[in-house]
Amino acid sequence: MVLVSHSQAIAPTPAVCFRRKGKQIADRSGLLQLEYSVEKPLNREPPVDELVSSFITNKGGYDRNHGPIPHIDPARHTIYVDGLVKTPLELSVQDLQSFPQHEVTCALQCAGNRRHTMRTLLKEVDGVDWYDGAVMNCRWRGPRLRDVLLKAGVAGGAHVALACHQTACQDDSWFGSSIPLDRGMSLDGEVILALEMNGQPLPINHGFPVRVIAPGIAGARAVKWLDRITVQEGESKNFYQQHDYKILPPEATTKKEAEKYWGSVDAIQDMPVNSVIAVPNSGATLSSEAPIQVRGYALPQGSHGPVVKVEVSVDDGKTWTVATIEESGKWSWALWSTTVTMKRGKGRILSRATDASGNVQEACPKWNLRGVGYNGYGESRDLIVT
User: Fold this and answer.
1) Which has fewest Cβ within 10 Å: 65, 149, 206, 313?
2) Alpha-carbon span 58 to 116, nearest angstrom
3) Is the predicted pLDDT of residue 300 greater than 50, yes or no?
4) pTM score over 0.70
5) In which band, very low, low, confident or very high, does the pLDDT at 329 lie, cut at 50, 70 and 90?
């Protein structure tokens, strides 16, 4: 661990990239291999029926990226801590391992999860066409952000900016976000600098060697390949904090119209209460002569977990049946199941979730241009019952 005085410059040096045989290589204290590219980043999600087969997502979790994936040598990686702190720090991965390690089981969810549903049920939106699988539930382990900031000595500020300067992104030369300082310093908030995922070192595509995990907060704030932590008065100035991941008012119907709202609308932090039906899939053919198994996942709002109730309806919400919650946790998703019977013909199944603070999933939220934070009723539609 290196303690740095305020007079020393500690800004990470941006990677300088060039192409070699179809791959990007960065010269930054050695060769840094990059997979994918700014033009074609890795964005994928698993089929939702496979996703809910396990409470812990051990394989097949979603990937959300705004640029290439860097392969970082942990022995050379440095995390800088600066801003409104008494003693700026330069931390190695080994330094992070020397702090007390904390494990938290929580869901990590893209702010645009279920964007496809908003697009198809309401109207067109701008963004990656996520279905219902841009979420995963994992065990994360690493030092608390709080402990690292206490080591540096917080001297003021209201926000913690989190950054990765390893690669360029689609809309900025680096990736950054921020969370409220009080959330980062809260013991109950359990924000960590994750070094492990499900008992193993972080996979490269999920941020190896270190990423932020902020339970209950949108995945856009869970910065991968973390290299800088800054305590400051305002939010991060990065594009993805200032001009993306915000629930714009319905009046902002085009990118041009959105410009006048970016500066006045709060950035997404806590994700809303939500539920999804994974089985049966929309469009499935079912039998009226046997009970129909219904399964899915549900998520609490922000820090208000766990999910305490999931209900299912086969009559467009006139009546509801309480499902069985199989496993859940304060920050985790809840896997749930039930059986229903349906009459012959075409139909649909709805789901709605309630968390420990009484937040109830709404039937249909307002449309927003970026299609983020969608939490209308879970739905399996266009079912054919014979």
Assistant:
1) 313
2) 25
3) yes
4) yes
5) very high
Nearest to 110, CA basis, from 66, 50, 77: 66
CA distance 2 to 107: 33
123: Cβ–Cβ under 8 A, 6 or more apart, which residues? 367
| Amino acid type, 163 | A
Task: State the Cα–Cα distance between residues 290 and 101, nearest whole angstrom.
Answer: 50
pLDDT over 80 (residue 282): yes
Burial class (CB in 10 A: 0-12, 13-18, 19+), 57: buried
Q: What DSSP assignment string belongs to 259-315?
A: TTTTTTSPBP-BPPPEEEEEESPTT-EE-TTSPEEEEEEEE-STTSPPEEEEEEESS
pLDDT in tens, 234-275: 999 999 999 999 999 999 999 999 999 999 999 999 999 999
- 183-221: b (≥16 Cβ within 10 Å) or e: bbbeeebbbbbbbbbbeeebebebbbbbbbbbbbbbbbb
The pair of structure tokens assigned to 262 is 């970016």
pLDDT per position as a tens digit, 357-373: 999 999 999 999 999 99
Question: Looking at residue 87, what DSSP letter applies?
Answer: S
Residues 178 and 162: beta-carbon distance below 8 Å:
yes
Containing 161, the helix (H) or strand (E) segment is strand 159-164
Cβ atoms of residues 26 and 15 within 8 Å: yes
Query: Of all helices (H) and strands (E), which one includes residue 380?
Result: strand 378-385
- CA–CA distance, 48 with 54 (Å, rounded to integer): 11
| Of 165, 182, 154, residue with least CA distance to 238 | 165
On the 0-12 / 13-18 / 19+ scale of CB atoms within 10 A, 264 is exposed
What tokens appear for 354 in the block? Answer: 């309630």
Q: Is the dihedral of CA 256, 128, 113, 228 positive or negative?
A: negative
